[in-house]
Design a protein that fits this description.
binds 5-O-phosphono-beta-D-ribofuranosylamine, alpha/beta, globular, seven-stranded mixed β-sheet, two-stranded antiparallel ribbon
Amino acid sequence: MIKIGVLASGRGSNFQSIIDGIKAKEIDGQIVALVVDNPEAGAIERAQANGIPYFIVEKKDCPGKGAMDRRIVEILKGKKVDLVVLAGYMRIVGRELLGKFKGKMINIHPALLPSFPGLEAQKQAFEYGVKVSGCTVHFVDEGTDTGPVIEQTAVYIGDCKDAHEVSERILPYEHKTMRKLVANFSKGRYIVEGRKVRYESGL
Ligand code: GRF
């Protein structure tokens, strides 16, 4: 049974996919904390509906460099989190936070990295005109969407009419990929060798 901490900034549908995976007994884990940087985040309602403790950590309440990350570390360490999932978390993770959870922090990105890193990845893919994009779950490192790749799912987007349709097309695959990955983390471990990641089942 792993203890999961989730960081989100928005509607939290990826957060929901982990909740659903736990309910379906695919994930042998418990979400012990949701941390949001935005009091309007839809993810909060999902935490409330599922009895998950949530914490609103706003930049305005944490003046100074690193203060926000230190507060988040306090929360996650206090809950003895084993795995930190960035699920639509729109901030860059600073040294204070990353240093405490390196190798235990994953992010989901709505493109096939290293293509289209950063913001609006779906729009980047649509405007570039690629026929196939998708999503990537990776370990978080010091860079932006540059950590070792854990899993990717390819999605055909060649017939999408706009960036919104690309986002809608990819999103369900993000949920499937996220749910599978967190389930794997709950039943084994991912070994990182350089840029390569391999899975070993059995904790
Ligand atoms: C997802 O597309 C995720 O890949 C990106 O932002 C979106 C968040 O969606 N980082 P949600 O908050 O999980 O619904």
